[in-house]
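Contributing new complexes? Match this layout with uridine-diphosphate-N-acetylglucosamine.
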Amino acid sequence: MLQLTPMQIVGGRTLKGEYAVQPSKNAALPIIVASLLSREPVRLHGIPRLSDIYTILDIVTHLGTRHTWEGPNTLTLHTPDILNTETPYSLVSKMRASFIVMGALLSRAGEATVSMPGGCAFGHRPVDQHVKAFRALGVDLDEEGGNFEARRVAPLGGRYVFEMLTVGATQNAILAAVLGTGQVVLENASIDTDVVDMIGFLNSLGANIEGAGTHTLVVTGVASLRGGEYTVIPDRIEAGTLMIAAAATRSHLTLTGVRPDHMRALSMKLTEMGVSILETDDTLSVNATSGVLLPTDITTGSFPGFPTDIQPQMSALLATVPGTSVVTDGVYTDRLTHVVELHRMGANIKVSGHTQTIQGAPLHGAPVKAADIRAGAALVVAALAAEGETTIDGMVYINRGYERFAERLRAIGASAVQPEPVLATAMD
Ligand SMILES: CC(=O)N[C@H]1[C@@H](OP(=O)(O)OP(=O)(O)OC[C@H]2O[C@@H](n3ccc(=O)[nH]c3=O)[C@H](O)[C@@H]2O)O[C@H](CO)[C@@H](O)[C@@H]1O
Ligand SMILES: C=C(OP(=O)(O)O)C(=O)O
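Output block (do not edit by hand):
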C-alpha cells in the first residue's frame, strides 16, 4: 500500500513570481456528474488532476461512463448507457459531492439508490434539503439504513423553496429536472460560482435552465442533451489560499488564470487589512510587502460572501497579524479542526462556542496533522509564515484539493517538499 509522506516546509521565506491557478475542483466535480445526462461524448477542459476527481471518475465509471484523458487537464466522458443505478457506500463515503449522482440518475434513468455521502469531517452535514426538494418535485424517496432510494413516478414538476442557500442541493435538484417533460421552479437557489458553472455546462448541451446567478431557477425538461465541449472555471479556493499565503509571508505574488470577480469578498478583506490588490481580467497581484497588517473580523457566508472553504486559511493568516481578530464560520459552525494544530505552532486562538478569537503572534515550525482539506491548507499557510521547519501529516486530505502543491509552492520561492510515497510494510 502506498503511504503518503508528510510535507516539509521551512518557513519565513517570501514568495515571489507567478502562480498559475488550477481549474476548480468543486466546479469540475458536479460537471463530471452532469455529463451523465448526455448519451454523446463530452469533452471537458480544465479538469484538475486531484484525488477527488479520480474518486468521482470511479463513481461515474461504475454507473457506465467511459473516460479518456488528453494532456494534463482535458477529459472526454462518454455514457452511452447507464449500467447501474446504485452507488455503493464504498464509493460515496469518500466525498460529499458524490450525493448529486442521485439527481443525474433520476434524470437519465428514472431511479437511483445512493448511500449517505462522506466528505470532510468538520461537523454535521445533513442532506435534508436534497431530500425535501426531491419530494416536493414529485420524486418517491425512501431512506433505509443510510441508503436513499429514489424513483421518478411522474415527470418532475412544481416548486421548491430551499430553507437555506445550499450548493449541493441546488445542483441535485437541477440535475433531476433537466431531462423530462415537466417544469421545476427552484427558489432561494444558490448563486455559487459552482452552480452557475454547472448550469452553463448543461445549457451548452441543450438543457433549458433559466436564471443562473439569481435565486430563482426555472428548469424546463428536455428530451435529451447533445455532446459538447466546455471549459471549467478556475479554482477560487486554491486562488484564495495563495492570496492568503502571500499575505501571511508578507510577499508580492501574482496569480494567473484567475477570476478576480469570484474573489471579491477575500480581496476586500485583504485590502482592509492593508494588502494591496491589483486586478486585470484574469490576474490578481497581491502585495503585502509594505509591512504592518491590521487585524480584522470575518463571518463566512454563501457566495458572494466570505467562503467557508478559506476560513481556516484566513484564521492561520490572522494568527500572524498583531492585534485581535474574530472569526465565525456561519456556514459550517464547527469548522475548527485547524485550531488545535495551529496551537502547536504557537498560535493564540481561543474558541468559545463557534467563534475563534485570535491574538496575532509569531508562529514557529512544529509537527502537525491535517484532519481535513482546508485545515491542511491552513497548516501550509501557517508553515510558510512560521520560523523553522513544519512537517504536515495528513497529506491525503490536502491532495484532495491541491495539485502537486509542494512542487508549485517551490516554484514561487517556498522551501516545501513532499518526498515520494514509499511502499508501506505490513507493520505500518
Ligand atoms: C464538493 C463541494 O463543492 N463542496 C462544497 C459545497 O458543499 P455542499 O454542497 O455540501 O454545501 P452546501 O452549500 O450544501 O451547505 C451549505 C450549508 O447548508 C447546510 N445544508 C446543506 C444541505 C442540506 O441538505 N441541509 C443543510 O442543512 C450545510 O450544513 C451548510 O451549513 O459547498 C460548501 C459551502 O460553500 C463548501 O464548503 C464545500 O467545499
Ligand atoms: C469541504 C470540501 O469538500 P467536500 O464538500 O467534498 O467535503 C472542500 O472542498 O473544501
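Reviewers usually confirm one structural detail per submission. For this one: The chain has two domains: 2-22+234-423, 25-231.
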